[in-house]
Design a protein that fits this description.
This protein has helices at 14-25, 40-45, 47-68, 80-104, 157-160, 177-188, 208-220, 310-325, 354-360, 373-377, 407-419, 424-428; strands at 5-10, 30-33, 108-110, 114-118, 121-124, 129-137, 141-143, 169-173, 192-197, 224-227, 231-237, 240-245, 250-253, 255-258, 262-264, 297-299, 339-341, 347-351, 363-370, 384-391, 397-403, 449-450. The chain has 451 residues and is an alpha/beta fold. The protein has three domains: 5-141 and 263-325, FAD/NAD(P)-binding domain (3-Layer(bba) Sandwich), CATH 3.50.50.60; 151-260, FAD/NAD(P)-binding domain (3-Layer(bba) Sandwich); 339-450, 2-Layer Sandwich (Enolase-like, domain 1), CATH 3.30.390. Strands 1, 2, 3, 4, 5, 6 and 16 form a seven-stranded mixed β-sheet that branches. A six-stranded antiparallel β-sheet has the order 17-18-21-20-19-22, sandwiched between helices. α1 (14-25) packs parallel to α8 (310-325), α3 (47-68) crosses α4 and α3 (47-68) packs across α6. Bound molecules: NADPH dihydro-nicotinamide-adenine-dinucleotide phosphate. Residues 146, 173-179, 181, 197-199, 204, 230, 259-262, 308-309, 339-342 line the site of NADPH dihydro-nicotinamide-adenine-dinucleotide phosphate.
């Protein structure tokens, strides 16, 4: 049987574009359909614009610190529309880069929504039908709001980059990556931020000591964080939305944002009809090679709800091409993935939390928390945390947790050592870089506790 394409990719985000490009470079005839903007969540409404907003939001404290260091500087206020104009110009540029990557590698692109008609056939919203030997679903995910009265008025992270004006006040619901990152960003930009999180501590699943410090610092920086609190209902009123909370609060906020998780984009795509199995959250069920139960259909990235991070989707895309087009079956390695949460302060983490490691085996915990030189000199009370979890039996570092400015940059490098299986003694025989914050990672001599 002949097909129009060797590979048809559904979704032009980081994972889909990478797989399409690499397969095409290897000589495959490839097409890709995207019904929104090329670049996907990461580039258009996630990591990239978020990080630029983090940078924007850090200037007020940098200006205060500059004064403490003897500079005569004055903040003239923040011009949201000027920043937004530059932000969207940058996103347009990046989208162009993604389109060029595809066209210059000979990938046919369809600016259309794609559905599966069967295991080898794609039906486009333009009415066209295309056949392919292999289909790769990389359609990503989208934010979800809980079903409660008035929730339709609230925004999500998709909308935040498009607000015409910055609100004076905002309520953010949730305690995950997105809620905590935007609480810091908007607080830095001068918005009065209230955050409701239903659990006992934000950033569930991460090391308890690390998330405790992030939470303390967020509160110290001015985020009005309410733990053990959820929203019950919201309704439009003059000047915003009146919100009733489970803590008995009844307050008006100019905006309300839900950051209550994301769901895979699998609805109305003909997946189940084609025989593809979906999980409880609607995610595509795949094996270690990203293959579904239908041999010609594979899926990567957030739509599979494994580890929902851009670099992971990219690696899944590369492993897919290696497996299918280079006859080299390559499982995706999801172990010891370093990650950063761009809260203020940042958190960088790799490996097991203290709590998870204790469950696994006897451990030693090395940790130090201190006021970093740069901020202490400026009169700030900010504290940072450097923490290692060590196996008593093998001496391997099982987890590394950093809460500090620049923690994302630090954990990338510490992540190499942990991934290589470095022991505590390997850390110890590495000479300190002085004076830095991260030198503490190689100078902690005595465990603070064993468990
Ligand atoms: P998360 O799943 O991380 O967090 C969702 C939060 O919403 C949790 O605190 C959850 O509470 C809470 N929640 C869920 N349902 C409700 C509800 N009905 N009412 C109130 N609260 C609720 O999702 P995010 O949207 O923050 O992020 C999605 C994913 O995107 C992340 O897991 C991550 O993989 C990725 N991401 C990565 C970033 C990075 O690398 N820096 C940045 C942003 C996103 P509970 O804990 O109780 O379940």
């Amino acid at each position: 049987m002949t097909f129009d394409y060797d590979l048809f990719v559904i979704g032009g985000g980081s994972g889909g574009v990478r797989a399409a490009r690499v397969a095409a470079q290897g000589g495959a005839k490839v097409a890709l359909a995207e019904d929104d903007r090329y670049g996907g969540t990461c580039v258009i409404r996630g990591c990239v614009p978020k990080k630029l907003m983090v940078f924007a939001s850090e200037f007020p404290s940098a200006i205060e610190d500059a004064q403490a260091y003897g500079w005569t500087v004055h903040s003239g206020g923040f011009d949201w529309s000027a920043f937004q104009g530059k932000l969207h110009a940058e996103l347009d540029r990046l989208e162009g880069v993604y389109r060029t990557i595809l066209s210059s590698n000979g990938v046919d692109t369809y600016d259309a929504r794609a559905r599966l008609a069967d295991a080898h056939t794609i039906e486009l919203s333009t009415g066209e039908r295309k056949t392919a030997k292999h289909i790769l679903v990389a359609s990503g995910g989208q934010p979800v709001k809980p079903d409660l009265p008035g929730a339709q008025h609230a925004i999500t992270s998709n909308d935040i980059f498009h607000l015409e004006t910055l609100p004076k006040s905002i309520l953010i619901i949730g305690g995950g990556y997105i809620a905590c990152e935007f609480a810091g960003i908007l607080n830095g930009l001068g918005v009065q931020v209230t955050q409701f999180y239903r659990g006992a501590q934000i950033l569930r699943g991460f090391d308890e000591e690390a998330r405790g410090l992030v939470s303390e610092e967020m509160i110290q920086n001015g985020v009005n964080l309410h733990l053990g609190t959820n929203i019950m209902e919201m309704a439009p009123v003059d000047g915003g939305y009146r919100v009733k909370g489970t803590n008995g609060s009844d307050e008006v906020f100019e905006q309300v944002m839900f950051a209550t998780g994301r769901v895979p984009n699998t609805s109305d795509m003909g997946l189940e009809e084609a025989g593809v199995q979906l999980g409880r959250k609607g995610e595509i069920v795949v094996d270690e090679y990203s293959q579904t139960g239908v041999p010609s259909i594979y899926a990567i990235g957030d739509v599979t709800d494994r580890v929902n991070l851009t670099p992971v989707a990219i690696r899944e895309g590369m492993a897919f091409v290696e497996t299918v087009f280079n006859a080299n079956p390559t499982p995706v390695d999801h172990e010891l993935i370093p990650t950063a949460i761009f809260t203020q302060p940042e958190m960088g983490t790799v490996g097991l939390s203290e709590e998870a490691a204790r469950e696994q085996e006897p451990i030693e915990v090395y940790a130090t928390s201190f006021k970093p030189m740069q901020q202490a000199f400026a009169g700030r009370n900010d504290r940072v945390l450097m923490k290692l979890i060590v196996s008593q039996a093998t001496r391997k570092v099982l987890g590394c947790h950093i809460v500090a400015p620049g923690a994302g940059e630090m954990i990338q490098l510490a992540g190499i050592a942990v991934k290589m299986g470095a022991t505590k003694e390997d850390f110890d025989r590495t000479c300190a870089v002085h004076p830095t914050m991260s030198e503490e990672l190689v100078t902690m001599k005595t465990p603070v506790r064993t468990a």
